[in-house]
Specification:
Elements (H helix, E strand, L loop, with lengths): L17 H11 L15 H5 L2 H18 L6 H16 L9 E5 L6 E3 L4 E5 H6 L3 H16 L2 H8 L5 H14 L3 H14 L4 H25 L6 H13 L7 H4 L4 H12 L13 H13 L2 H12 L4 H17 L3 H14 L4 H13 L3 H14 L4 H13 L3 H14 L4 H13 L3 H14 L3 H13 L6 H25 L7
Parallel strand pairs: 1-3
Antiparallel strand pairs: 2-3
């Protein structure tokens, strides 16, 4: 994954009307939508910016996201938001396109999409949503913007400004909207560069917002969610926001009464699906997100304890789960277990509960019991990523590095690469004194995060440490080096980064 660098050259094309691009970028940066009945947008956007180039820009963008924002690295939260996004994509008719969903630890109520299908959702938006359908409505909206290539089409409208300059500007505005300081910088840049045809630009972006609403509702209905969740949620945000800067979503996705009415009318034409959670994890994840966002276990524990006292039955299990997480973070393992046991009694096979049980056992010094918990559940849910990640971490804590490596190797044979597992693989190799293997794993870890240049540096270190007589390993490293150097070259070309020899 990667973020946007700076443009190092200025051609006559890049100097054309920067204000137009800035305004378009500002109005599009936070929105996106997906579609079941995808309109035919023609080939012009593809001719200007190919999907391959857009994916490369996406990696550059995501690298900057990780450098600038607090991306949540919790395996359960990551798996949930990816699962929700994939459920929408499965009903969208966009198969073959790449989408990556992630959560940013930020109380501002916002979501945003960048190039290449990278879609971020703030913890604040997750917490303000009242149902999974409401959260899915925003994710569907963002997915639709990507599916319709609204950013690429907006850039194309912007006098064919160069992709490198565009990428840098869009990234600055998207990331700037996440902080007050960044927002002020973005406003200053807009004020300094805006010129001409503003009404035409606004109309263009409004058309895309409305298209995103329409297609996003089709996504919702196709995935089994109630399409009315979109107008309902937007209307509730509008009524609650007033001048609250926490409601950043309404600044990056202007919601008008007309737009809400239009989306409500369109929702009436779609089947009203039963509003049920995908797998019952929405409320649990929302409770966990609260703990992560607070970053203050005592504050979270006080909230859950107080709220539990008067909570409706439908909310109690998720609140108890959040309370147990907070108590564990406070080092109160016995109290955490007391909250968790009734939940396990009701749903003994729920993965979230079993993972937390293993964490409590591990924190309480019951290493063998924790490993047994994870192993038992991995037999039920083989290659489940959150379970595998927690299990490998427990193995390393128990100094079982060989078993940890074997587990990771087995996972990679069956499932796609994962940055965190590569990091754990490097740690296990280091514990065993396998320096070359450690650097190879670190290279893949950094590459998964979009840090291609750092990945190449790790490969170089591994290359220097390879025994002279190990021709097979040398050939493997050289082949991977060639692949990553080509990727780095493509990133520099499409993003406009300065020429740096990796």
């Amino acid at each position: 994954m990667s973020p946007p660098p700076r443009a190092d050259t200025e051609t006559p094309t890049t100097r054309r009307r920067p204000g137009r691009l800035l305004l378009l970028a500002a109005l599009f940066a936070g929105a996106a939508i997906a579609a079941v009945d995808l309109p035919n947008i023609g080939d012009s956007a593809e001719n200007y910016l190919s999907t391959t180039e857009e994916q490369t820009l996406g990696k550059v963008f995501m690298r900057n996201v990780r450098q600038s924002l607090r991306v949540v690295n919790d395996p359960e939260v990551e798996a949930y938001i990816q699962s929700l996004g994939y459920r929408l994509v499965a009903s969208s008719g966009t198969q073959g396109r790449q989408f990556t969903y992630f959560v940013v630890n930020d109380p501002a109520i916002n979501a945003f999409a960048g190039f290449g299908g990278y879609i971020g959702v703030n913890t604040g938006l997750i917490l303000v949503s009242e149902s999974e359908a409401e959260l899915a409505a925003v994710v569907a909206h963002e997915t639709a913007h990507v599916a319709q290539r609204h950013l690429a089409r907006a850039i194309e409208q912007s006098s064919r400004m160069s992709a490198p300059m565009t990428a840098a500007i869009i990234a600055a505005i998207i990331l700037g909207s996440q902080t007050n300081q960044g927002g002020q910088i973005g406003e200053a840049a807009l004020a300094a560069t805006m010129a001409g045809s503003i009404q035409q630009q606004i109309n263009f972006t409004r058309a895309n917002e409305w298209e995103a609403d329409r297609i996003g509702m089709q996504f919702l209905a196709g995935a089994g969610f109630d399409p009315h969740a979109m107008p309902d949620f937007f209307e509730r945000l509008q009524k609650s926001s007033y001048d609250n800067l926490q409601y950043s979503f309404l600044y990056t996705h202007p919601v008008t009464t007309e737009r809400i009415a239009d989306s409500r009318n369109r929702a009436e034409q779609l089947p009203r699906a039963r509003d049920a959670e995908t797998n019952g994890n929405y409320r649990l994840i929302r409770a966990k997100v609260r703990v992560l966002q607070d970053n203050n276990p005592q504050k979270s524990a006080d909230y859950f304890e107080k709220t539990l006292a008067s909570a409706p039955t439908s909310e109690r299990d998720a609140l108890a789960y959040g309370y147990a997480l907070s108590l564990l973070a406070l080092g109160r393992e016995d109290d955490a277990l007391a909250q968790l046991r009734p939940l396990i009694g009701k749903e003994p096979e729920r993965i979230a509960y079993q993972i937390l049980l293993g964490q409590i056992q591990l924190a309480g010094g019951q290493t063998a019991a924790a490993l047994a918990t994870y192993e038992r559940n991995l037999r039920l849910y083989p290659y489940n990523l959150p379970l595998t990640t927690r299990y490998v971490g427990a193995l390393l804590q128990a100094n079982q590095a060989e078993k940890a490596l074997a587990t990771i190797t087995g996972y990679f044979r069956q499932r796609p690469p994962d940055a965190e597992l590569y990091s754990l693989q490097a740690r296990a190799a280091s514990m065993l004194g396998r320096t070359t293997e450690m650097h190879l794993a670190l290279a893949e870890h950094h590459y998964q995060l979009g840090e291609t240049r750092t990945a190449i540096e790790q490969l170089r270190i591994a290359q220097r440490g390879t025994p002279a007589d190990d021709d097979r390993l040398r050939a493997r490293i050289e082949a991977r080096m060639t692949e990553l150097q080509e990727a780095w070259k493509a990133e520099r070309k499409v993003s406009g980064e300065e020429e740096k020899k990796p």
